Amino acid sequence: MAKSAFRREIESAIQQRHSKIHPFSEAWVSGGLTKQLLGEWVKQHFHYVSHFPWWCGRVYADAEDQETRAFLVENVMEEEGFAEEGGFPAAKHTDLLLDFGEACGMPRKEIEDAQLNGELLPETLGLQSWCYRQSHKPTYEAIAALVVGLESQVPQIYKRTTPPLIEKYGFTEDEIVFFRLHIVADTEHGERGFQTLERLADTDAMKATAIRIVDEATGMRRLYLDGLYNKFLAPRQEAAE
């Protein structure tokens, strides 16, 4: 089936600033990080994705139609480990991320307490705040932001960054389940998010707003990666020069 003009515009907005291409992502793919730096990524990433089920639950509370509510509650159940997905056993996604963090040498409690201890980067806090604000917007705007603009990017990002975890960093398959799961699960979530957004944004004004929000989401994810790059990689490159 041919894609609608609206769908093509949304996809174009994502691809123009997709986080699969970013200096931090390139360093990851090329083997330019270390397990310690990957652990620092987990510390920041945990405090973004751990809130995701709550944000989706907040959108669910305001959604007016059953089809949208069903999509959102399924997403939450999978994130929280109450349902199997993509052929993987049910598992709380953040537990899998913490498992990977431990494989990087980062203690679980250190990851969990990072915000309490003032260790989150301003850009991570900015992404948190932006997502919180979007979760209180009208349903189509929230889905444009959280599911389409952010979550739908994940499969393409992890398809690039997962193979090097085995090939360049020496992790085992058991240690990278978090990434394998999200390549499968977020492909489905993203597609359903696109379909839901196309169904809900049924006026020209709503479509224009949705495209703007998707574009904004891509910018927020890149700013989050900018924070990681500027904190952990830029100083090393400057020192090497």
Task: Give a written overview of the molecule.
This protein is mainly α. Helices cover 73% and strands 0% of the residues. It is built from twelve helices and no strands. The chain has helices at 5-16, 23-30, 35-49, 52-62, 66-79, 93-103, 108-112, 122-135, 139-150, 154-167, 177-200, 204-240. The relative contact order is 0.18. The mean pLDDT is 96.
**Poorly predicted segments:** none
Mean pLDDT rating: 96
How much of the residues is beta strand, in percent? under 5%
Count all strands and give the number.
0
Q: If helices are DSSP runs of H or I spanning 4 or more residues, what is the number of helices?
A: 12
What is the approximate shape? globular
Cα-atom radius of gyration? 18 Å
Give the topology string: H per helix, E per strand. HHHHHHHHHHHH
Main sheet summary:
none
Describe the secondary-structure layout.
Elements: H1 5-16, H2 23-30, H3 35-49, H4 52-62, H5 66-79, H6 93-103, H7 108-112, H8 122-135, H9 139-150, H10 154-167, H11 177-200, H12 204-240
Keywords:
12 helices; 241 residues; mainly alpha; 73% helix
Concise account of the structure shown:
The chain has helices at 5-16, 23-30, 35-49, 52-62, 66-79, 93-103, 108-112, 122-135, 139-150, 154-167, 177-200, 204-240.
